[in-house]
Sequence to fold (247 residues):
Amino acid sequence: MRDLIASLDARASIRKRNIGRNAWTRFVDQVVAAVRKYAPPFHWIFASATAVLLYIYIKFVSFTVRFVRTGELKWPDLPSSVVALWHRDAPSLLIGFAKRRPLRRCMMLVADDPRGDCLALLCRMLGFTVVRRGNHASAWAVLEDLMPEIERGSAVFITVDGGGPPRVAKSGALIFAAVAGVPLIALRADCWPALEEVHKWDAARNPLPFSRIVVSLSTPRCFEPFTSHSSILGAREWLQGELDKSL
Fold:
């Protein structure tokens, strides 16, 4: 399994950086990175203030929304598992988390780039345990970071298209679930009406007050440790299909 993961890391390293991210998003990334590097107090003040405002907004929206739960497994009843979702569904998930927080310890993997600082602060305020890793960290290093959380019985949330291209499932969540020996759950979340950020690479949909939010969990599926690229491809096709189902 370690050799297989190393092979996948090598394939990923030759892809273009930030694939799926448009010119505007890359420009914002560069500005935020420059501020964190050359004026860190301003960066952290801004990140903290933004996280607080977003937290207040999420809590307000969570009190006003009509919350719908679908699927054989009902939110927030999560087993110790790996929970996979699209990046664009994260705003609706955060509202759902604030509305009905799981009793189980929940962990969110957040990139350690400057843009992720605000999100990491926000997730901690909402009650997530946060583990941070770079977008170019090896898959095995990420596994070593996440494994202690699974041993504590956590549900680990991973956006499987993080970094782009949007709505294309990567293999990390599948491999982690197989190595850790826990089920994988596909989570879909959406809201109507929504403020859609069409300029962003993932076209994130942000819930508005008094909107309708749907959170759907797939049937948990367990995978044996993968021994070939073809076995991972088959599992990834299953995950892609589950996440692409309409709500």
Notes: The chain has one domain: 2-244. The beta strands are 66-70, 81-85, 106-111, 129-133, 155-159, 184-196, 205-217.
